[in-house]
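Q: Give me the 3D complex with S-adenosylmethionine.
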Amino acid sequence: MTATGYQGATAESIRHHYDLSNDFFALWLDDSRTYTCALWDDGDPTDTLEKAQERKLDHLIEGARAPGADRVLDVGCGWGSLLDRLVNTHGVRHATGLTLSDSQAEWLRETGLPGTEVRVENWLDHQPEKPYDAIISIGAFEHFARTGLTRAERVGAYREFFDRCREWLPKGGRLALQTNIKGNNVRMDKQTVRDLLFIMDTIFPESEIPALSEVIEAGEKRFDMVRLRNDPDHYSRTCQEWLDRLRADRPRAVELAGEENVADYERYLSSTVSHFANRHLGLSRMILEAV
Ligand SMILES: C[S@@+](CC[C@H](N)C(=O)[O-])C[C@H]1O[C@@H](n2cnc3c(N)ncnc32)[C@H](O)[C@@H]1O
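A: Here is the predicted complex, encoded as structure tokens.
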């Protein structure tokens, strides 16, 4: 827990997941270590996870109108693939990344990407010296409301995030947001409920996936939605790739993270392949403009 009022997963729970082992994650993520849903080109039979991750980053960077910008904020920067793409491909002069994971920050500082700054800091505590030209957040929003809150409390927690982002952008500035969402339209079978509980207890403690309507409600009067796409099939395919890569080098994975963790990650990834394919989960990519 950091400042009062924060309703998201605590730093301890975030570290429980992301501080497991940098080398373990590197084993099954693509080379850029992007740990979120890729954007696949179904018409391209030669598509790869590497290309699909770059395409995803470019989609959000362009949607946020970040190319050539002076200052861009990445909320939940992971191992820095977006920061890298912003400064090295899109001519951004200064990119700031926030994470709650010490391991991610240490790794990024060792890598020493010019034009970037990484801070182990909750967005709630972030106090930029100047406004940003654009903000991008990929796969962190799922951590911004703790398990067990009421819908109204969740909307309040998300609104706090939108308030901060609005404060840090000029009118007309853009926020690109990618997050998993609940697939509220499909009845769950018992196995799906068990798998989702396992993921909430063991893999991502304290985190709860938002409903799309909660995200939209929370952003009202702060942001206009200018683009929205839902790509559950893209996350199913991304998780399948990760699972294949993990299984291809399983003995090394066990060396790095231990048998129990590897078995847990196999269960988490394989069930997630189905949850997205069955629409129990969705994947939203949103472009929002500050009003
Ligand atoms: C699934 S990872 C995504 C990383 C990266 N965006 C990517 O696409 O690879 C989620 C990230 O959100 C960060 N995070 C979660 N809650 C946060 C918070 N309240 N403030 C700052 N970062 C947070 C985690 O530390 C982690 O870096």
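A quick observation: Strands lie at 71-75, 94-99, 116-120, 134-138, 174-182, 223-230, 281-290.
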